[in-house]
Design a protein that fits this description.
Low-confidence stretches: 178-190
Distance between the termini: 63 Å
Structural class: mainly alpha
Number of strands: 0
Helix content: over 70%
Oligomer: single chain
Length: 190
């Protein structure tokens, strides 16, 4: 009798191979064949668990969301959570490279783009109670992710102490109420 295979465990193994392919080759290098090669398996094994590249990608992204949320979940203060978003650890750099690669794909795929926009809205929802205005929320969101991208391109310029210094300067600037900074209500906000 053949051994039973834990379906979710096998699908997770495949998803982790997708992440490694994305990290090493970007979305341009993602295919059922490249994932199978990364696993040291046949393409048939990958297609047994995922019928299409889109199914494979959706599952990998779901697990990536879970992995990212788990890495952020323990950080409850604003500063700690924002530091956790920055690529300050090996895992943070890996997750950041995968997310940045995903953004390119999401820009040309309407469904992925909508899901990414919803993810950003959940992120802004988390930030709102910690920041004085919608402008501050948008500044922090765009600045922190800008630091992520810049660090991936130029890690020598942005070592961890520099990232923390820049984050502290950003928070200092947005947490001080300026007469020129106005709160812009978002949908459903007063």
């Amino acid at each position: 009798m053949p051994a039973r295979v834990d379906r979710e465990s096998r699908r997770r193994d495949v998803a982790e191979a997708v992440w490694r392919v994305l990290e090493n080759s970007g979305f341009a290098g993602l295919s059922m064949r490249s994932v199978a090669a990364e696993m040291g398996a046949t393409t048939g094994l990958v297609t047994h668990w995922f019928g299409t590249k889109e199914e494979l990608l959706d599952h990998a992204l779901q697990l990536l969301h879970e992995r990212t949320d788990a890495s952020l979940g323990e950080h409850v203060s604003l500063r700690d959570r924002l530091v956790a978003v920055l690529p300050t650890t090996d895992e943070g750099r890996e997750l950041s490279r995968i997310w940045v690669g995903f953004w390119g794909l999401a820009l040309v795929d309407g469904g992925l783009s909508a899901r990414e926009a919803a993810r950003y809205e959940r992120w802004r929802d988390w930030l709102r109670p910690h920041l004085p205005s919608e402008t501050a929320v948008d500044l922090v969101t765009s600045s922190v992710h800008g630091l992520v991208v810049q660090t991936l391109f130029d890690p020598e310029r942005f070592p961890v102490p520099r990232l923390e210094e820049l984050l502290d300067a950003l928070l200092g600037a947005v947490l001080v109420r300026h007469p020129t900074v106005r709160s812009t209500p978002g949908p459903g906000r007063v």
